[in-house]
TrEMBL record:
It comes from Spirosoma foliorum. GO terms for molecular function: siderophore uptake transmembrane transporter activity. This is TonB-dependent receptor. The lineage of its organism: Bacteria, Pseudomonadati, Bacteroidota, Cytophagia, Cytophagales. Its main location: membrane. Coiled coil: none annotated. It is found in: Cell outer membrane.
């Protein structure tokens, strides 16, 4: 017995055997594969009545069992999902906050009320194995080279600047976060750390929508969605606009070294108070021609501005301790951006369960600009230097993909997957610098030596094959190979020679798992990953908004290769407590790291180079349990050793570190609920330094009303910390530096949420979209 839409088995359905008069003789329930058998029947005429919750009752026409043909195979019997309007939907239970699947851990963010009114940064901070620092930078087991997907597909929103883009996605729209540490061959090989898949809430059948409004001292947003879905056609629109304030103060003391001796000292005090504004919208359509053929189309667009304006006091003492430079500086830096993305997909399912063919296409266009104006003044307030810069960048991208899944059995325990993919990226960046001279501050002239045009093309052709085998002893083997061919070309208008790189990567993956019992399992996995340098890594444009701290891309970068190995064990007790232990090892050769050098005048330059080996060994612990009917607790931790070594720079750095997090929720009478979250990290080690410990905690209270269709949630972040302080110490043979940072993160927010419209029950099956997960986000 199969679902008529998904062609998946319908287990435990009721099958009644009828006589020729329509009376019930006996009954059976279907197995896990949807099969059933009646034996010992006398010759004669019979009928069947098929029933199951959520499906329309079906009566099969009379069939005859003859003495000369005592066995009849009825083939696949289809049940049609039932569409029934509901006056009220009552949720009797909720998923656990942390769930384990065969190749990933899932954080069910929709069940965590402390996320209300926040952003995706708040959500990822609580996901297992992830670390999100005070400024929103995301790491998976210490690596920021990640593939970050939105509903299983890439998003230009997440590709350019992940920490900023996450602030544009409201937490209220996120259903769950999947953390995949050992991706199979089906995923693009890009992203040495692993894969993060952000799943947003899906449209239910019927005409319905939601509205969320948040007001707070650091965060304001308004957003929602509305759509309708019928048996064959669905249309959904969603949008959001938000503004988030970021305030910080930092003090840095950096000593320049020459032959190991101090050659100068730079002191800087910087203060910043910026408001980041952004918006996005999405229009999605789906149409099912029949139960086997579906097409989907979507248009997404987003934009905004990420200012990084600041005020700076600067003082430099030479080797003799004499102040040779002292000034203040005002920087107005803006980064406007925008994107439009089109997705088209066709999905063909077959009568055999889990057999599927998908043909997908995607086109996106992104502009991503940076401009700044820097004005320097002496201590008397007179202008002494001015500089302006513009960097205009655009990135059109075209992708085609074909995937096919073929099961060898109706249970899906043995299957093969294979596919092909082609990506074409054409990136252009034009940057120009205008600055003044010391004797003509008001006159800005074009600086040809620091201006250029950079064109960058990237082509990726890939093919993969993956095999899954499972036996009755509950062993499962999933292995695969992925071959990727990459061509990268860069051209400059003048001065800098062009480059062309071509390389092939054969990426293996293997996952071996065993279900020890109904409550215990273990898994062993190994895979390789690559990280290609992207446009912002290669572009030699120099950001000199602070002339004492320069940063630029490096067109000489080459891809890095990472080896990932993991062994994990999971246990679920009789009372529902859950424990997962994962021991892992990651090694990255030819690692791309930020390298800083400082000259004797106190000027530093930071660029990325392939100069190190990065190794990390650690143990992840994740647990969840329900203390009583109303009190749920989950938490986790990581204990690890990390090591950097660079022969080229003659630098080594290592350390033992750990971090912990705890999340508690309590349900009160009268539709009130409380939740608390906290985390602590001892910091992290870098190639040229180390950050000190940091922490984050939040409290939330919610009241539901209007038959639980609306709610008010009051949340506070770090209420007893103002400001939060964190230090950074770094060094090399050319400098020693100490930075004391203050982040003003104490905030309060109030969120109103409302769900409206009619909801209808029915099976959900969405069309697939392109997954350019090779475009890593940092």
């Amino acid at each position: 017995m199969l679902d008529s839409v998904t062609r998946q088995p319908v287990p435990f359905a009721t099958v009644a055997l009828l006589n020729s008069s329509g009376n019930v003789l006996t009954g059976k329930t279907t197995s896990e594969t949807g099969a059933f058998v009646f034996s010992g029947l006398n010759p004669g005429s019979y009928g069947l009545q098929l029933t199951f919750v959520g499906y329309q009752t079906r009566t099969v026409l009379t069939f005859t069992l003859a003495a000369q043909k005592p066995v009849i195979q009825l083939g696949n019997l289809l049940l049609r999902p039932e569409s029934r309007q509901l006056n009220e939907v009552v949720v009797a239970g909720q998923k656990a906050l942390i769930e384990e699947k065969s190749d990933r851990l899932v954080y069910n963010a929709a069940n965590d009320l402390t996320n209300k009114g926040g952003t995706a940064v708040d959500v990822l901070r609580k996901a297992p194995m992830l670390t999100v620092d005070v400024t929103g930078n995301v790491q998976l087991r210490g690596s920021s080279n990640l593939k970050v997907l939105l509903n299983g597909r890439p998003s230009g929103l997440l590709a350019r600047n992940l920490s900023e883009a996450l602030k544009m996605i409201p937490a209220n729209t996120i259903q769950s976060v999947e953390v995949i540490t050992s991706p199979s061959a089906r995923y693009d090989a890009e992203g040495s750390g692993g894969v993060i898949n952000i799943i947003t809430k899906k449209q239910l059948k019927g005409s319905n929508g939601n509205l969320d409004v948040t007001a707070g001292n650091y965060m304001q947003s308004i957003g929602g969605s509305y759509g309708f879905k019928r048996e064959k056609f669905g249309l959904t629109f969603s949008g959001n606009a938000d503004a988030e304030r970021e305030k910080s103060v930092s003090e840095m003391t950096r000593v320049s070294l020459l032959d190991g001796q101090p050659a100068g000292e730079l002191f800087q005090r910087r203060s910043a108070n910026n408001v980041h504004r952004g918006w996005f919208g999405d229009l999605s359509m789906e149409y099912a021609f029949d139960t086997l053929n579906r097409v989907n189309f979507s248009i997404s667009t987003w934009g905004g501005a990420w200012p990084n304006s600041n005020s700076l006091y600067n003082r430099f003492r030479n080797a003799e301790g004499v102040v040779s430079q002292e000034y203040t500086q005002e920087v107005d830096q803006q980064s406007p951006f925008g994107n439009v993305e089109f997705n088209l997909g066709y999905t063909r399912t077959f009568k055999k369960p889990k057999q599927e063919l998908a043909v997908l296409a995607q086109y996106s266009y992104t502009f991503d600009n940076t401009r700044y104006t820097s004005d320097q003044y002496n201590l008397g307030g007179a202008p002494i230097y001015r500089e302006t810069s513009q960097n205009k960048s655009q990135n059109p991208q075209l992708t085609f993909q074909l995937d096919y899944t073929h099961p060898f059995s109706t249970s899906g325990r043995q299957m093969v997957e294979f596919g092909v993919k082609a990506i074409r990226r054409d990136v252009g960046s034009t940057y120009a610098i205008y600055n003044s001279s010391l004797d003509a501050v008001d006159l800005l002239t074009y600086n040809a030596g620091r201006s250029n045009t950079f064109d960058y093309d990237q082509q990726v052709l890939a093919t993969y094959a993956s095999l899954k085998l499972a036996n009755q002893t509950k062993w499962t083997l999933q292995s695969g190979l992925r071959l990727e061919n990459t061509v990268m070309e860069g051209r400059f208008a003048d001065s800098i020679p062009p480059f062309r790189i071509r390389f092939n990567n054969l990426i293996p993956s293997i996952i071996l798992s065993k279900q020890l019992s109904d409550r215990q399992s273990f898994k062993v996995s190994y895979t390789q990953r690559i990280s290609r340098p992207m446009i912002w890594d290669l572009n030699p444009y120099i950001n000199a908004s602070d002339p004492k701290n320069l940063s630029a891309g490096n067109p000489q970068l080459r891809p890095e290769l990472t080896h990932l190995a993991e062994i994990s064990y999971s246990l679920t007790t009789k009372n529902g407590a859950y424990l997962n232990l994962a021991l892992y090892r990651r090694q990255t050769d030819n690692s791309i790291e930020e390298v800083r050098t400082v000259d004797t005048s106190g000027v530093s330059q930071t660029i990325k180079q392939n100069v190190a080996r990065n190794q990390r060994t650690g143990l992840n612990v994740n647990a969840a349990w329900q203390l009583n009917r109303n009190w749920k607790v989950n938490g986790g931790g990581e204990f690890y050793h990390t090591q950097f070594s660079s022969t080229a720079l003659q630098v080594q750095n290592s350390g033992w570190l750990w971090q912990l997090n705890l999340n508690m929720a309590y349900q009160l009478p009268q539709n009130y609920s409380l939740q608390a979250y906290g985390m602590y990290s001892t910091g992290w080690v870098l190639l040229q330094g180390k950050n000190s410990a940091w922490y984050h905690y939040s409290l939330a209270a919610r009241k539901e009303f209007w038959d639980k269709k609306a709610s008010l949630t009051l949340g506070v972040n770090n209420p007893f910390t103002y400001p939060f302080r964190q230090n950074n110490d770094s060094q090399s043979n050319s400098f020693q530096s100490h930075t004391a940072n203050q982040y003003f993160t104490r905030s309060v927010k109030l969120t109103f949420s409302w769900q409206f419209g009619q909801i209808r029950a029915g099976s959900e099956q969405s069309g697939r979209k392109i997954t350019n997960d090779d475009a890593k986000a940092k």
